[in-house]
Amino acid sequence: MRERMKKVKSVQYPQHEISFILNGKKVSCKTKGSAVLLDVIRDVFELKGTKPGCHEGECGACTVLVDNVPVNSCLFLAVNADGKNILTVEGLLHADGTLDPVQESLVQNGAVQCGFCSSGMAMSLKALVHQYENAHPVAGEIKKGIPSRDEIKKHLEGNLCRCTGYVKILDAAEKLFLNNE
Amino acid sequence: MKKNLKVIGKPIPKHDARSRITGEAVYGHDIVLPHMLHGVILRTEHPSAIIESIDVSAAKKLPGVVCVITADDVDVNNISYKRDHPILKKNEVNCIRDEIAAVAAETKEIARQALKLIKVKYKIRKGIYDPHEALKKDAPQINKFIGGKFSNKNIAETFHYEHGNLAEEKKKSAVTITRRFTLPRVTHACMATSNITAHYTKTDKKLLLYSSTQVPFLYQRDMAHALKMNPSDIRIIQPVIGGGFGSKLDMYPFEPICALLSIKTGRPVQILYSREEEFIASPTRQPMIIDLTVGADAKGNFTFREINIIKDNGAYTSWGATTPFVIMQAFSSLYKIPACCFDAMAVYTNNVFAGSFRGYGNPQATFALERMIDLLADELGMGKAEIRLLNANEKGEVTGQGLHYETCGHKECLETVIAKSHFKKKKSPEKSGRYKRGIGLASMLHVGGGAKIYRSDGCGTTVKIDPYGFCTVITGSTEIGQGSETVLAMMAAEELGIDLNKIKIINTDTDVKPWDVGVHASRTSFVAGNSLLGAIKILKEKLNKKAAQLLNTNDSYFDYENGNIYLQNTNGGEPANAKKNSVLKKNSEIPDSSFVKLDKVVREMHFGEPNELAIASYFYEPSSKFQDKTFKGNVSGTYAFASQSIEVEVDTYTGNVKVLDIYVAQDVGKVLNPLLLDGQIEGGILQGVGYALSEELLVKEGRILNPNFHNYKMLTAADIPNIHFYPVETNDKQGPYGAKGVGEAPLIPTAAAIANAVCNALAIELLDLPVTPEKILKALAEKEKLKKQTV
Asked: Which residue among B26, B683, B710 sits closest to A165, beta carbon to beta carbon?
């Protein structure tokens, strides 16, 4: 067995040293050039809340925020996270165990069923909140007021859900913005 | 049972939602065990071929590879209820899913690399992809593991059912219509792909499986049979399950393969499907061709239905083959029908096999049936609402198949959606313009109190209260995201009068939880709910005895509220409720002799003589009957009904259908939790809209052409219609608090109602799903052509 383990280690890929902010803390690791952020988050930092739904950028379950912009972490090369600010669903939770208003609204409005899409949904919604909070303009775009239901639909188009039929998720989003107003 | 409900009926959020939205919940994909290996499966490159040789030597030599297995390395039994499915294929392959070899390696990358080093020599054969071709006399036998039972070597399963006098009813019929309906393959597309982690320990020869199965106890038995093990040496732990919808009702080859890799290596092994593998290798809804003939008399009363169904069984059998159990119910018992003759057969082909999928054949049946009712109405010159109301099921009815409708909300459901959607006003659409609107109706019947398809349809529960007043419910049932944990916790909180956050649900371990059939047939709230109520009743008898002793009374009537046990006023004085209310307001003023704290009672039970535990177990078996060989009998504890009225707008230039409004009324018996109920309705309906319009697993000569979310069109948030839901409460006395099963029903009539609406909008005839723009444009072109010919 020991013999075999040694051999495994002998499989070498060129490694890149990257550093970034992960949920408010500065972290660094070595990663190969082809590694995607999703795998680094899940396997290196063992944050399992970011879900692998398709690994091809179609389902949105792995959505995380990179400098407040939602990305499919399964398509985002880990080396590109160097120097960036990454927020995963674990980072939404407050230190005292209370939920972020986005999470709380999803829970209270029955928007979570099996939950496998829920982290990605929460992160996408968080990005929308950022856009409307004005504090974190995305690509120069600062939005005023609150988003319409149609705008929320459009925003969540990249997040698939098989359980809820999206209605409760949209309700949660609408109420979140109404409460924030 | 209590009359003034305090918890039941409230919109209480799912109690496990917090852990699911914070990343705390551990799904199968999140499990990491010490020294764990990663397993991958080599599948065939061809749907039909002879395997001339398999060479795994290079794969075995790859550093980091720990184990490679083929059929020659294992001693196992075939799986599936027909035992017609080898876990690893030898000599030949018959389906694009076929598993040829499996690798366990230190990392996923190495395991995948190893697959590429396995050399398989195939002699490609011409496969059979059409069940009608497979039925031809000179067709080769596709599955070699069964045979002899049926007239044709490629028949996997048959069903025959009949009631009434068909010949006589045909004579009575003023109109008779025959059509052929074709239903596609669609797939569950659970957001979490299939997964399993197996951990075999060599010292005690026990196998621990972290499996997302919906039926842990049947699975344990199937796994034991496959691996030639003692079932009790196999322990199933269910991690948090990322979607079920019926897909996890059977055991598939990857699961015993993972166990075998663990047994061979003595290390934990994990297999996670990629999304592509999920589309290719997980089961689908049963595709079928339905030949249907129906009749009605001049007044519009239905007279008979004659059904002939051919199902493409694929190369092996899974639960898809048994969907006629449910399909025949729709045909025999949805609307009053004097005579019915039903035949269905599943035919082996080299296609992929179908499993069970929410609705279990019912969406297919209901599509054909409800499309046909519109055709009958047109032929008779009757209204589509009127013909349905005329024939709707009624309370007290015993159907030809022997289903007892002790409660029945069919008519009320129909009337509700007809009124709410202004169906009668909208039924004649505009004749001109690019965009045309139409409205369609459909109903459905489904089991609402379990389904006795095994000799027992039962569920066991153990409930205990600790000395601190917290309650643990150990239930046989399974949570797959639908909210069963929450509903059971609500029932326990209601009955025991303790806070919801003091209820713990244990439901994931076969070594701990009592036996249960599994989560299917919309049965969990009904069966597990009744089981829990039964256990609580027994537990309360014990608690009451001790409470009476502590309160120095001979009375045996108590109320449980606010963590206390109150002596009920049974002396005919002021009503108990009035007293209770005053108790709630002014606890301190109540003399000690009227109540005692629940936790104190439990402590006195534990520590005072005769020293016993506050624990009780109960096994609930529904009153339903196991059907006889002619498929007759009251198979469910109760039945659920629903109607949907759906308005669409069709773009006649592009063929695109936009679903505008869906009005749905469903007989749910009693609303246990409106928030969770809405979730079931809305989620089900959207799956139904996908089935109607956009979803189809495209298969050409046995290969899946669209194994990804880009080309398999699941609906997104941007596609959702307005859903207007009206629960109909019929308070079935069999159900917990009167409730019926609700989970499958919402998607069952949706495709039928949408197709009816599109046909109403365009005056065309659609007999296939999905209703794609191509099909609509083709139908419009044909209509135009026909018009020109007649002019």
From this structure: B683
Residues 147-166 of chain A with CB under 8 A from chain B are 152-154, 156-166
pLDDT digits (tens, 9 = 90+) for B128-175: 999 999 999 999 999 999 866 888 999 999 999 999 999 999 999 999
- What is the rounded average pLDDT of the residues B326-352? 98
Q: Report the share of chain B in percent with pLDDT over 70.
A: 96
Give me the phi and psi of B164, to 5 degrees please.
80, 180
Inter-chain touch B14–A107, beta carbons under 8 Å: yes
Distance CA B702, CA B143 (A): 15
- Cβ under 8 Å to B: A residues 4-63: 4-5, 7-8, 10-11, 46-56, 58-59, 61
Of A59, A153, A157, the CB nearest to B191: A59
Q: Which of B15, B20, B21, B29 to mutate against chain A (most A CBs within 10 Å)? A: B21
What phi-psi label fits residue B359: left (phi over 0), alpha (psi between -120 and 50 degrees) or beta? left
Chain A residues touching B717 at Cβ < 8 A: 152-153, 156-157, 159, 161, 166, 169-170
Q: Do the chains contact at A110 and B11, CB–CB below 8 Å? A: yes
Q: Which residues contact B459 (CB under 8 A, 6 or more apart)?
A: B475, B476, B477, B514, B515, B516, B517, B527, B528, B530, B531, B619, B620
**C-alpha B689: how far from its chain's center?**
17
Best mutation target, A88, A128, A167, A168, to test chain B (most B CBs within 10 A): A167
Summarize pLDDT for B342-381 with one digit per residue, the tens: 999 999 999 999 999 999 999 999 999 999 999 999 999 9
Contact A169 B17 (CB under 8 A): no
- What CATH superfamily is the domain A13-180? Beta-grasp domain (3.10.20.30)
Residue B391 to residue B636: CA distance in whole angstroms: 22
CA distance to partner chain B, nearest, from residue A137 (Å): 24
- Domain spanning B31-126+191-243+248-281: CATH 2.130.10.10: no
CA distance B242 to chain A (A): 5
B-contacting residues of A 98-117, CB under 8 Å?
A: 99, 103, 106-110, 112-117
The label of the residue with tokens 């009359």 reads: B3
Test B64 with A109 for CB contact under 8 angstroms: no
What is the C-alpha separation between B14 and B142, in angstroms, rounded? 47
The answer to whether B369 touches B757, Cβ cutoff 8 Å, is no
Count of positions (residues) in chain A: 181
> Does the pLDDT at position B731 exceed 80?
yes
Asked whether the domain spanning B288-452+628-790 has the same topology as the one spanning B31-126+191-243+248-281, the reply is no
Say how far apart CA B714 and CA B694 lie, in whole Å.
Answer: 7
Burial class (CB in 10 A: 0-12, 13-18, 19+), B783: middle
Q: Which CATH number fits domain B17-23+458-620: 3.40.50.720, 3.40.50.1820, 3.30.365.10, 3.40.1440.10?
A: 3.30.365.10
Query: Helix, strand, coil shares of chain B as percentages rounded to 5?
Result: 30, 25, 40
What is the CA B122 to chain-centroid distance, rounded? Answer: 38
CA distance B73 to chain A (A): 21
Residue A181's CB: how many other CB atoms inside 10 A? Answer: 8
**B655: amino acid identity, one letter:** G
> Is the C-alpha dihedral spanning B96, B101, B104, B109 positive or negative?
negative
CB B286 within 8 A of CB B187: no
Nearest CB to A164 within list B240, B241, B683: B683
The answer to whether the Cβ–Cβ distance between A114 and B29 falls below 8 Å is no
Q: Where are the domains of chain A?
A: 13-180
Residues contacting residue B117 through CB under 8 Å, at least 6 positions apart = B56, B58, B59, B62
